[in-house]
Fold:
Amino acid sequence: MASPETGVLVARARALAVLRVRGAALAVALLPAAAAVVLLVGGATGRLGTEGGWAVARWAVGGLTVLSLVLAALVSAVVARARPALSPSVPIAEDAAPDLYRLVRDLADRLDVPAPSAIALTPDCDSWLEDRTHRAHGPPRAGRRAPEAPVLVIGSPFLWWMRVAELRALLAPVVAGTGPSAHPDIAAARRFIRGLDAAAGVAARARGPLRTLPLRFVGRVARLLLRAAREHATLMERGVAAAASERAQGVDYGLRIVAQEQVGLAYAGWDRLLTRVALPAWRLGRWPSRLDAGVVSALTELSRRDRLAEGFASRLGERPACDLLEEPGTIDRAASLLAARLFHGGPAEPGPDWSPVGWQQYPQEIVDRKWRLEAARLHRVLDALPPTAADLAPEAPDASRAPDRPADAPGAAPAAASAPPLSYAGARVRTPAAHHPAGLPRALDAAPGAPLRSRADDPEAQAGSPLADEPPVSPAPAVAPTLARVIDRLARDTDAGDLLAARLGAEVAREEREAAARQAARDSATKPAGSGTGGTDIAWGDGLADGGLPLFPLQPPRTARELLADHVTAMVCCAAVDTAGAAPGLDWLDGPALLVDGARRADLGRPVLSLVDDGDAEPLRGWLHRVGVRPEKPVRLA
Structure:
C-alpha cells in the first residue's frame, strides 16, 4: 500500500522538473551575456584580438546581449505582475461561519496538516484548494513571513444538501492537500505555472499596437514554457492528489463512500435546477435568490420519483451542513447572484433590470410572464408573415363554429368556407392595398430579426417609391391573439412552420444581442479605472468574463424548431390559464409547469410537436377539448 510520503516524493520530483524548465529558460536568456563576458575578458587580457573580426564579434554579441536581457526583463515583469486567475467565489469570514471554520481546523488537526487560511463558497458541485498568495490578490504584507496556506473552496450545494458528518468526510482529502502544498519545491513550481498562465492571458487580452507587439512575444514565450512543463505539472498534481487521498484514508472512511454518492445526486439536482428552473428566470432579468435551498426541494422531489433514490429523503432529519453558517439565507443569496453571473452572464449587482425573485413568487412572476412574452412574440412574428390565399379570400360567417353565440356577436369566429374547422377568430384581411405589388407586407423586406415596420412607418414607402402617390391607407385592424389562429396557420400552411421558426430564431437572437450590449455597457461604466488590460495595470484574472458573457454557458443555443415549439406551448398555456381555469406552477426538476385542477399536466409536449413538425393539429385539438380550453377566445398577452 502506498504511503502519503510516496506521493509527496513523486510530486516533488516532478516539481523539480518544472523548475528545471524555468532554469533552462533563464540559461537561454543569459547565454548571449555569458558570450559577451568571454569576449570582453579575452580582449582585456590579450588572449583574444581587439581588432578586425573580434571587434565585430564583440559589438554583435553585445547588441544581442542587450536585446536578450531586455526581452527577458519584459517576460519576467509580465509574469511577476500578471495576476493569476481566481475562481469566482463568495468569501466566508470566520465570524460568519465559526462552526464551519472549527470543523475544518479540527479536520486539519486529525490529518496533521496546516489548516486552510480561509474558506469560500462556489456555486458548483466541487471543492478544491486554491493558492491566493499573489500580492495582487490582497493587501501588501509587511516583511517576510511563512508561506500562507491555500484557501478552501467548497461547493455551496453541498452545504445545503449534505449533512455535517458527510461534509466532513467529503472535505477530508481536500484539506489533506494543504500538506504537500506547503512543500517549498511544489509551491515554487505552482507559482511558476500560474505566472505563465496569467502572462499568456494578459497577452491574449492586450489591446493597442504599443501593447500588442511586446505582449505577443511574451505570450509566445509563456505558451512555449507551458508546453514544455505541461506533463511534469500534470504528474505533480496527480502526486499531490494521491498523497492527500492516502493521508485521508483513516478519517471517516465509511462516511466518505456515502458522501461520494451524495455528490453525484447533488450534481444531478443542481444541473436540473439551473437549466430548467433558474435559466427561464435569468432570461427575464430575474434571479432566484435561494438557489441552494431549491437544491433540497429538487433532490427531495427526485428521491420521491426515483425508486433508486429511496432513503435519501430520510437524511433530511439529520443536521444539514448549512447550519454551520450564521446567516445561511444571506450566503445563499450571494451564491445565487454569482451563479447567475457565471452561468448566464448577468450583472454583478442587483438593479432595476436584475431583481431577485423568491420561490413563492416564481409561478406568477416568472412562469406566467414567460408564457405571455413568448405568446406575444409569436403573434408579432405571425402578423408579419405573408398572407395566404385563404386570408385574402372573402370570409363568410359560419354558425357551426360558435353554436353558443350569434355569428355577429363580439368575439365571434367567422371563417372561410374552404378553411379547416379552426380559423382566425375575428380576423378578416380586406386591405390588399396596404401591401406592395409583390403581395407581401413591406415589413417582410427587412432583414430577419429587424424590427417589423408598417408602410405608414416606412419613409421609403412614403416618398420615392411607386406607391408614394397613392392616398394613405389605414392599417389593417389588429388580429385577435387567439390560439385558434396559430393552430390554423400551422395546420393549413406547410411552409408556415419553417418561416415562423426562422423568424422567431432571428427575433430571439436580436433580443439577446441587445441584452448583451446593454450588459456590456453597464459593465464598462462600472469598471474601475486602471483595471483590466486596457488600464495602467496589466493585472488580470478575476475569473469573470468581460462584456456580460457567461464563463460556463448552461446549454447550447436552442434551434429554431425548438423555439417554435416553446412558443406554441406558451400560447397553449396562456389559453388554458385564461379560458380553462389552469394556473402556472413550478416543478423543481422540469421548471415551468401547467397546473390543471391543481395537478401538473405533463402530456402537452407530444401534441405540440405533432403540430409543429408534421402540421397535424388533431392531437392538440383533442388535448384542448379534454382540458376544456377555448382556442377561439382571445388571450391576454404581455
Q: What stands out?
A: The first strand starts at residue 90 and ends at 92. Residues 395-477, 528-537, 539-543 have pLDDT under 50 and may be disordered.
